[in-house]
Amino acid sequence: MAWEPIIIIEPEHLGLHQTVMEQLLAQHKTIATGESCTGGSLAAWITTLPGASQVFECGVVTYANRIKTKLLGVKPETLEQHGAVSYDTCAQMALGLEKLSGADCNVAITGIAGPEGGTPEKPVGTVFIGLACEGKVWVEKYQLSPAGQDREQVQALARINALQMVNAYLSGTETSSFVTYREE
């Protein structure tokens, strides 16, 4: 299935955290977040809901590369070879978070929110979102900065797309994208 990213925030997206929380509660599952470019805002969004303590294990903000390595086990050579904004870094963040948290759903986000920091290869709005569950990981690359979007919009779109992935996993509509991660 080709994954369609959300690049425009619609009113129905604003309650996605509630939908995901209800699914987590119904399935007796937990969630944890490992965030870079969103700066902990996904964790904050989830915990605005009453009852979040029943499903939310932890949120880790790993803005600095050394913290990605220290807390989430991202290999220094991965950061050197691929950079902080890459498939491999995101996969290692998600799997490291799973090991750290023990949660059922482990969401990692790394990207370039802007307005600076982009390159021709990785322009502003490039975001990788990973979901680790049961030792397997699903990582998607997004381009979330169509013309006119600012840093906060990129962060909001990253949060929404992350929860969209969790929602797809919990509802059973997306399981074929999970793989056993092997660094190349």
UniProtKB/TrEMBL annotation:
Ranges where the CinA C-terminal domain occurs: 16-169
Xref: SUPFAM superfamilies: CinA-like
Domain of life: Bacteria
Name this protein carries in UniProt: CinA family protein
Protein source organism: Candidatus Egerieicola pullicola
InterPro entries: CinA-like_C, CinA_C
